[in-house]
Design brief:
- By secondary structure, the protein is α/β, with parallel strands linked by helices.
- The protein has helices at residues 26-34, 54-58, 77-85, 106-112, 161-166, 178-186, 216-229, 231-235, 238-254, 258-271, 276-286, and strands spanning 13-19, 42-48, 67-72, 92-95, 101-102, 120-129, 132-136, 139-140, 149-150, 157-160, 194-206.
- It folds into two domains: 13-211, Spore Coat Polysaccharide Biosynthesis Protein SpsA, Chain A (Alpha-Beta Complex); 213-286, Tetratricopeptide repeat domain (Serine Threonine Protein Phosphatase 5, Tetratricopeptide repeat).
- Strand 6 and strand 7 (132-136) form a beta hairpin.
C-alpha cells in the first residue's frame, strides 16, 4: 500500500467519491458535500486513472483542508473505494458516485438521529434513471438479507467503518451490483443496528446507455460471481435463486447465447413454478 499524507483530523464522517473521466460532473458531487450545513466531515476524491481534465477541476477545491485528492491507475470502483476507506479519518463512511449529489441537511440530520449508535443509516432517494424521476425508499430486501429494510445505492447509506471492514469491504471482482453484494454480507451480522431517516438526501442519476458498469459483460460476470460466491444462501431462498437465474438468462439471451439462456430460464421456473414470467419467456425462446 502507498504511503499517504498524515492528516491530524478528527471527523465522524468521511465521504469517498471515486471518479473516472467525469470532469464535467464530479464538481457537482463535491459541491454537494461542501454545501452540508454541518461542517464535520472530510472528503476523499479518488481519481481512478482519468484521462480528461479531472485533476484540473478538482485542484481548486484542495484549499479546503477537509478535502483530499488521490490519483491511481484505473483499477475499478471497488478497489478505489476500499483503498481509500483504509485511510479515511471518519468512524463512518458514505460512498458517493461522482454523478450524484447530496442534499445539504444530511449530516445535520445524522447527528440529530444519534447515528453514532447504529451500524447502518439509510435515507430516501430521488432517482433519475434515463430521465425518469421516482422516489426510492428502503424496502424489505428479503430472506437473503435477513429481511433487512434498506437500500444500498451508493450515497443512500452510511456505514460504520469498523463493520465495513469486518465484512471485507467491497468485492473487487464485482463490477456491477457491488453495493448490494456488500449489503448482502453485512446483513448477516447478528444484532445489526440500523436507522432509517424518512427524508430525501440523495439525487441519484444514471443513464444506462452510457454507464460502462451497465454493460452486458459486466452484469453477466458480476451476476455469475455473486451466484457462485453465495450459492449456499441461494439454495435456501428459491425466489432469490429464481431471480438470479432469470437475470443471467436475460443477459445471455441479449448476447445471443440462446442455449445457455434457456437453461437459466428453465432453472428460474423450476425454483418458483408459480411464477409464470420465467415460463412465458422460456416458451417464447423455445419457439423462436
Amino acid at each position: 500500500m502507498k504511503n499517504y499524507p498524515t492528516r491530524n483530523f478528527d471527523f465522524d464522517i468521511s465521504f469517498i467519491i471515486p471518479t473516472y473521466n467525469r470532469a464535467n460532473e464530479v464538481t457537482n458531487a463535491i459541491d454537494s458535500v461542501i454545501a452540508q450545513t454541518d461542517p464535520r466531515w472530510e472528503l476523499i476524491v479518488v481519481d481512478d486513472g482519468s484521462t480528461d481534465e479531472t485533476s484540473q477541476v478538482i485542484h481548486p477545491y484542495l484549499v479546503d483542508r477537509r478535502i483530499n485528492y488521490f490519483f491511481q491507475e484505473n483499477l475499478g470502483v471497488s478497489i478505489a473505494r476500499n483503498t481509500y476507506a483504509k485511510v479515511a479519518a471518519g468512524k463512518y463512511l458514505i460512498f458517493l458516485d461522482s454523478d450524484d449529489v447530496l442534499f445539504p441537511e444530511l449530516i445535520n440530520k445524522l447527528y440529530q438521529n444519534d447515528f453514532l449508535n447504529f451500524d447502518l443509516i439509510f435515507w430516501d432517494v430521488i432517482q433519475v434513471i434515463n430521465g425518469k424521476i421516482s422516489k426510492r425508499k428502503p424496502l424489505n430486501l428479503g430472506k437473503m438479507y435477513n429481511k433487512l429494510y434498506g437500500t444500498f445505492l451508493a450515497g443512500s447509506v452510511c456505514y460504520r467503518k469498523k463493520m465495513f471492514w469486518n465484512f471485507g469491504g467491497y468485492d473487487p471482482l464485482m463490477t456491477f451490483g457491488e453495493n448490494y453484494e456488500l449489503g448482502l454480507r453485512i446483513s448477516q451480522k447478528e444484532n445489526l443496528k440500523t436507522k432509517y431517516i424518512k427524508e430525501v438526501f440523495l439525487k441519484y442519476t444514471i443513464d444506462t446507455t452510457t454507464r460502462t458498469s451497465n454493460s452486458f459483460s459486466n452484469r453477466l460476470n458480476s451476476h455469475l460471481h455473486q451466484f457462485e460466491k453465495h450459492k449456499e444462501k441461494y439454495k435456501k431462498d428459491p425466489p432469490a435463486r429464481a431471480t438470479m437465474n432469470y437475470l443471467i438468462g436475460f443477459i445471455l439471451e441479449k448476447t445471443d447465447n440462446k442455449t445457455s439462456a434457456l437453461e437459466y430460464y428453465r432453472n428460474s421456473w423450476y425454483c418458483t413454478p408459480w411464477n409464470l414470467k420465467a415460463l412465458k419467456v422460456l416458451f417464447l425462446n423455445l419457439f423462436k
